[in-house]
Amino acid sequence: MSEAEEKADETGEETPVVTEALEWSAPVLARVDDHDTIPNQLLQRVQRGPRRALAEVKEPMTGTWRTVTAGQFYDYVTKIAQGLIGSGLGMGDRIAIMSRTRYDWMVLDFACWSAGLVPIPIYETSSRAQIEFMLKDADIHFVIAESVVMANLVAAAAESAGLDVTVLSLDQGAMDTLESAGASVPVKEVDARITQLTLDSIATIVYTSGTTGTPKGTEITHGNFADINANSHIWMPEACHPKSRMLLFLPLAHILARFLQVYVVTGDGVIGHTSDLKDLLPDLGTFKPTFLLVVPRVLEKIYNSADAQTGSGAKNRLFRAAANTAVEYSKSLDTPEGPSRTLSIQRKLFEALVYSKITGLVGGNVEIIICGGAPLSTHLAHFYRGIGLPVMEGYGLTETTGPISVNTPHLTKIGTVGPPIAPMRVKISDEGEVLAKGPSIFVGYHDRPDLTEAAFDEDGWFRTGDLGSIDKDGYVRITGRMKEVIVTAGGKNVIPSTLEDSLRGHPLIGEVVVVGDKRPFIGALITLDDEMMQVWLKNKGLPSMTVAEAARNPEVRASLAQAIERANEGVSRAESIRKFEVLSTAFTEANGMMTPSMKVKRSSVLKKHAGDIDALYGGPVEQD
Predict the structure, then answer these.
(1) Cα 490 to Cα 11: distance, rounded to the nearest angstrom
(2) What is the pLDDT of residues 192-222, one digit of tens each?
(3) Residue 444: DSSP 8-state
(4) Tally of CB atoms within 10 A around 386
(5) How far apart (Å, rounded) are the C-alpha atoms in residues 208 and 101?
(6) Can you give the C-alpha Rg of the chain in angstroms?
(7) Consecutive H or E run containing 234
(8) Which of helix, strand or coil describes residue 254?
C-alpha cells in the first residue's frame, strides 16, 4: 500500500504525497561495438571454453540429461543456419517458430540470427486467426512448428491468408530436413551473413499479447539484446557463472524467457528446457537448477499446495506456524537488529520439519528465483526468502527487451521490482506513469509509425502505461495500469491490482477482477481454482463438487468473504470490496479472457460478464 493510501480517510480522500525520486539512472557497466551482435556474443562464449557445458538436453527414453558443450552447440547452430540459407531464405527474411519450450527452439533462434534472419515467435496456444494475422502482418513465408497439429493449423492459416508458406514440423524431422538442405552451403556463407549484421539489424518481431486490443509487432534489434545482455552479465553475475544452472519452462514466445535464454547462453551457465509442466517437479529434481524464472502463479501454487496437503489438523497448524516464522524472519532481515536469537532457533527447527521439503521440490540447489509478469504479494515474497528461496522480482515489457528493473541478491527491497538494471533510466511522469530510456528500448512497432510515435513522449521516454513510483534509493514500485484505474461514482480513483494481487494467494481463487467504474462501490468477480478447490473441500470434510456447485456453496463463499475482509484491511473504505460474485467458468485463453502469457484481458471480462457486474449493483450504470 502506498503512502497516499495509508493516509486516505474513510471518505476516500487522499493526502498528496511527493514522490521521493522522480528519476533514477543505473550506471553503464559494459559497452558494445557495432558488430557485437547475438551470434558474435555466442562465439565469444565458445572461445572462452568450447568444451564446457552450455546446455543439457533431456533424453525422452531414459529421462537422463545429455550434456551439450559450447562447441557442439555452436556447430549445430551453424549447420541449421546453413540449412535455412539452403532453403532459400535471404538476409532479413522473417521466419516463425511455433513450439513449446524445448532445446530445438533455442537452436533455431540462434541459427536464424546466424543466417541473418528475423525469427518471430508464435505462442503454441495461438488460434488460427491470430496466426493468420501475424503471417500477413510480418510477411512470413517459412514456419517451423513443433507438432503435426500445429503445422496443420499454420497451413490452414496460411491458406486463409492467401500466402505461400513452407511449414516444417519438429516432430516430423524438421531439423534433419534443414541439415540436409544445408549440406551444400559452405560455412563461409553463414560467416558472411553474421558479418553483415549490426546492432541496428532487427533481431526479432515479438507480438504483444494484446490485453488492450490488436497485437502489435514489436521490433527488437540485435543492439537491444546485446547491450542489456552485456550489462546484465556484470549487474547480476550470480546467475551466469560456470556453475549456474537454469531450467527454463515458461514459453519462449515471451520476451523475458527469451532474453534470459540469451543471457545464459552467452554467459557461462548451463541451460535446460522442459516442455510439459506435468514433468516439471521431476525435471527440477533431476536437473537441479541454481536459479529459476517463474511467474507469481507458480509460487502461489507451490505455497497453496503445501498448505492444502497438510490437511486441517496438527500438520496444518505446524505448516502455518512455520510459514509465519518464515515471514517474520524475512522481515527481520530488513531491520538494523536482524533476526532475534529466538526467531533464528525457530527458523532452524522449521527448516528440518517444513522448509527443506519445499526447497526440495525445486531441486534443492536453487539460490534465487527471478519472478516477473505480474506482482507477487509481499507475504509470499517474505515467505520464500524466509525459507531460503529468495525471490527477485523484476519488471519489464516486450518493448524493453525484458527487464527494466530487477532486485538482485545484493540490491533487494521486497515489495518493489528493484532498481533500474544497468544501463537503464527510469522516471515518473506528472501523471504517475513509469517512463523508461535505455539501449534495450525497442525501435518501433512493425509498420505502425502512428503507434510508435504515441509510445514515446516528446523527450524520447518510452511510455510503459504502468503507474508507479521510485523511492529515495532508486527502487521502483509498480502500482497498476493507467488504463485499468477505476473511477467510482463518488470520484474515487481505485487501482484494482492492489486488491487482486493479495486475493490471488487464496487456495480457492483462480483469478479476480475488481470492478466498480462509475458505480457507487467496489465489487469483484472471482473464478475458482478447480484443482486446489478439490483439496480444500476434502480438508474441510466436504464432498467433491463442480465449480458451478462450489460457486453457490455457503462454506466456499464464507471463506472467500473472509479473504476479501483481510484484503480490505490494506485499503481505505472507499477502495474496499463490498460485494462479490463467483463465476462458474474460468478465464482461459480459449474463451478470450486470458492472454497467452496468462494475463487477464480485463476489457474482455468486463464485456462478457457485463450481466454479472450489473447484478452486483442491481442494474446497469445510470446514464447521464
Answers:
(1) 9
(2) 999 999 999 999 999 986 544 578 999 999 9
(3) E
(4) 26
(5) 18
(6) 25
(7) helix 222-235
(8) coil
